[in-house]
Design brief:
Length: about 230
């Protein structure tokens, strides 16, 4: 077994047709190996159909309890759902995932990483243990890296983070063990999002042959959650 293993996971699968197409491109022609499905959006059904047609693509549940944007005066909610009592909403999203995909998720995470905070975190960890799957930033067997992201923590553009050179640096410095590298590829024709213009750039970088070559040169095993 390789001393270093890399899962490249695309978030927001199912949110929009353009995101679905971007993830498909980065999976078929790039280094994406897994995706996280948002089940509350109309394009989640086509995303699930794609996953069923491509069973080697690991698909997890991207729990969707809200989205926030920084308007210069702090973060404000664009929408929230189930925040007063998240357990029924999480159970409902898991049931919808099973209905759409026809199997359990291979991993759990959440939009804007809300599962990192309590009391939500404890419940999501319990669901992950119940399913026997990793939970992002929680499960010890998989380290999470969010370094490949084209914005700062305040939501300001950071285009240099999405260059091929930057991604190769991230890959070259991976520690021993298994790392999940988050990404957000997508086309933007039909998309309204706080992370919009960065998505096509991600597709280009993830599909650049120099990235796959760097993974091979470093002796890193490219894998998916279903291979753990």
């Amino acid at each position: 077994m390789s001393a270093r293993r890399l899962i490249v996971n695309a978030d927001d699968f199912g949110r929009a047709g353009g995101i679905n197409r971007g993830i498909a491109t980065a999976y078929e022609h790039g280094v994406v190996t897994s995706a996280s499905l948002m089940v509350r959006w109309p394009d989640s059904a086509p995303a699930a159909e794609y996953a069923q047609a491509h069973p080697a693509l690991s698909v997890g549940l991207h729990l969707d309890l809200g989205e926030w944007a920084n308007d210069g005066n702090g973060w404000r909610a664009l929408y929230t759902v189930g925040t007063d009592d998240p357990e029924p909403e999480i159970r409902a999203q898991l049931a919808t995932f099973r209905q759409l995909v026809g199997r359990d998720p291979t991993h759990l995470d959440s939009h804007h990483h809300v599962h990192r905070h309590e009391p939500l975190g404890s419940f999501v960890r319990a669901v992950g243990a119940e399913l026997g799957v990793p939970v992002r930033s929680v499960s010890s067997e998989v380290r999470y890296s969010g370094e490949f992201y084209g914005q700062t923590g305040a939501g300001e553009p950071l285009p240099e983070a999405l260059s091929v050179e930057s991604l190769i640096r991230i890959i070259s410095s991976l520690p021993p063990g298994t790392t999940e590298l988050g990404c957000h590829p997508g086309e933007v024709a039909d998309l309204e999002s706080t992370y919009r213009d960065e998505r096509p750039r991600e597709i280009e970088t993830l599909c650049d042959p120099r990235v796959r070559a760097a993974i091979a040169a470093a002796g890193i095993e490219l894998c998916s959650f279903s291979e753990l």
